[in-house]
């Protein structure tokens, strides 16, 4: 399935100068989620994975079926104030200002191997912060999977030395 042919480009969203890669047409396609899940399952077939982390919110949609495919647990990494129990928190820089992500402190069993999934890697700030959360929670990072990678922004350079797979790149 040609994912790139279905991803929709929206210029100047959410602000002027940004080309937004809209994955909702892939999600709406009857085989879309299956194609994404299969792509990650094949790419990480030789890895042992205990948990998939999905980053709020599109990472939830993609990450949950990937976890199901691996027969492993799913862990949400969320924006501040959403998770009810004690959390670890990592702040990271945006173009203007900072943002923050959280994970439940007891989400990962000690040494649990974690695959982090998100829809798009741009600058890599979100994914790098999530990697730090895995470390804080006592997990071991097994890799990253992105549906879309924006190569010009070199987001990979902010990430640790683990396997990084993107299904589509621009
Ligand atoms: P970053 O931290 O810069 O790698 O940004 C990644 C997050 O922002 C992802 O969770 C994406 O959902 C979103 N994002 C950033 N740039 C885009 C874009 N051009 N199209 C769609 N989503 C984007």
Q: Which tags fit this structure?
A:
two-stranded antiparallel sheet; binds adenosine monophosphate; single chain; five-stranded parallel β-sheet; alpha/beta; 170 residues
How do the strands of the widest beta sheet line up side by side? 4-3-7-8-9
- The mean pLDDT is 97
Compute the gyration radius: what is it?
15 Å
Give the percentage of residues in beta strands.
25-35%
Structural class: alpha/beta
Order of helices and strands: HEEHHEHEEEEHEE
- Counting DSSP H or I runs of 4 or more residues, the number of helices is 5
Helical percent range? Answer: 25-40%
| Unique bound compounds | adenosine monophosphate
Distance between the termini: 17 Å
Strand tally is: 9
Q: Major sheet: size, sense and barrel closure?
A: 5 strands, parallel
Give the uncertain stretches in residue-range form. none
Shape: globular
